[in-house]
Amino acid sequence: MIRRQRRNLLLLFIPLVLFGILSCAPGDETPEPAAEPEAVSVETQDAQKDDIVRELSFSARVEAEDRLDLGAEATGEVETIAVDEGDSVDKGDPLVTLHSEALQIQAREARSGLESARAQLEDSEAALESARRETERLRPLYEAGAISEQEWDQAKDELAAAERAAKSTAPAAVQTAQAVVDAAEEQLDAATLTAPIEGEVAWVDVSVGDQVSTGTHLVSIVDTDTMKIQGLLSERQRARVDQGMPARVTIDAHSDAAVPVSIHHIASTPAPSASGYPITLHFDDRPDQVRAGMTADVTVEIERAEKVVRVPAEALIDADTDPAVFVVEDGKAKRRAVEVGLTDGTWAEIQAGVKPEDAVVTTGQTYLTDGAEVDVIERNDAS
Predict the structure, then answer these.
(1) What digits encode the pLDDT tens for the residues 334-378?
(2) What share of the chain is helix, strand, coil (3-state, %, to 5)?
């Protein structure tokens, strides 16, 4: 009896235990509230009021407006070279001298011949004077019949011969001798090449000991006061560049020295031997270190907008269709439609839609929607 009661109690207790275990098993829990969207990290740049300049650039070369290529004026061996490339010279300075010993001998002989001719002229003039006196002495004797006709004729013939020698033959000999001297001295002078202008030696094309003939190129001199910058414009550039536009040049050898230049001439047709339109510019004030032949980069200002509201060009979204920017206000991104004016690749002029000091999103804008929460991790203010 007692044993049966215990078994009944056990059977009653087991379901209660199982119910308790099952009631403690994991089941459906109460849903937690949905997490708020995370803020988008962005960088901003304050809109600012400043200038925007659109420019274009092209390569060019410094050239001399006036260059003289000097050749040998005589034939011979190069004896001395008085200059190096880059030297400054004054008009008349010696540049190259040819071996001139033979020319010096020739000039001395010519001068000696001239001295002889002049002496002969003096003798002829003295003989003429003597013949005149003799004729005047014999004239009254002939008229008085004291001398023969033959003696008188001889005196007149001697006077005529003296006149021919003194007035024609001897002077002609002097002229001929002088011409020989002039030619000899000219050849001697030609042995020394001198600078015809003040300038700078651009090239020296010979060495001491070289044999040269008349016309062989020896030295080139450039007029440093008339340096120019020569370049070529593409067809697109030619359509945008005009005389009077501000320009500056940077010489590759002196990259830290950008100097102002003026557009002097732009060709209306392409150069026959080059694919471009020649353009010539002049230095407003040429730096002393600039030399002919140096390469350069020219920048021309083709358009300028002054004191306008500008933002980084990278801030624009849908720039070609519906231009807009995102501006941060109270921790949220606000999409603003804008009117875009001049752009230079770095900055964009905003004619409407943004005011100075608005915090315009420059990084992260592609992930934004209007009203999105933002976390500004870097702000570049207008200062």
Answers:
(1) 999 999 999 998 999 999 999 999 999 999 999 999 999 999 998
(2) 30, 40, 30
Q: What percent of the chain has pLDDT over 70?
A: 90
Q: Are 164 and 131 in contact (CB under 8 A)?
A: no
Residue 250, class by beta-carbon neighbours within 10 Å (0-12 exposed, 13-18 middle, 19+ buried)?
Answer: middle
In what helix (H) or strand (E) does residue 338 lie, and over which residues does it extend? none
> C-alpha distances in angstroms, 77 versus 69, 102, 218?
19, 12, 12
User: What is each CA distance from 336 to 88, 259, 316, in whole angstroms?
Assistant: 64, 41, 10
pLDDT digits (tens, 9 = 90+) for 242-263: 999 999 999 888 766 789 999 9
Q: How far is the C-alpha of 183 from the C-alpha of 111, rounded, in Å?
A: 11
Q: The tokens 């120019």 sit on which residue?
A: 228
Side chain identity at residue 228, one-letter code: K
- pTM score of the predicted model: 0.56
Q: How far is CA 355 from the centre of its chain?
A: 42
Strand order in the sheet with 192-194: 192-194, 94-98, 76-81, 211-212
Strand, helix or coil at 17?
Answer: helix
Q: Are 64 and 224 in contact (CB under 8 A)?
A: yes
Give the Cα separation of 46 and 76 in Å (integer).
76
Can you tell me the distance from the alpha carbon of 275 to that of 234, in angstroms, rounded to the nearest whole number?
8
In terms of Cα–Cα distance, which of 293, 338, 274 is closest to 312?
Answer: 338
Please list the alpha-helical segments (H only) found in 191-330.
235-238
Q: Which residues pair with 89 in a beta bridge?
A: 199
Interacting residues of 195 by C-beta distance below 8 A, sequence separation 6+: 89, 90, 91, 92, 93, 95, 221
368, HSE (Cβ side, Cα atoms, 13 Å):
31
Give dist(CA 180, CA 174) in Å, integer: 10
Interval 124-147: pLDDT, tens: 889 989 999 989 999 998 888 888
Strand order in the sheet with 359-363: 332-337, 324-329, 359-363, 40-46, 374-380
Tokens of 135: 């004729």
Instruction: Give the C-alpha separation, 123 to 210, whole Å.
Output: 48
φ, ψ for residue 208 (rounded to 5)? -60, 135
Main-chain phi, psi angles of 221, to 5 degrees: -120, 140
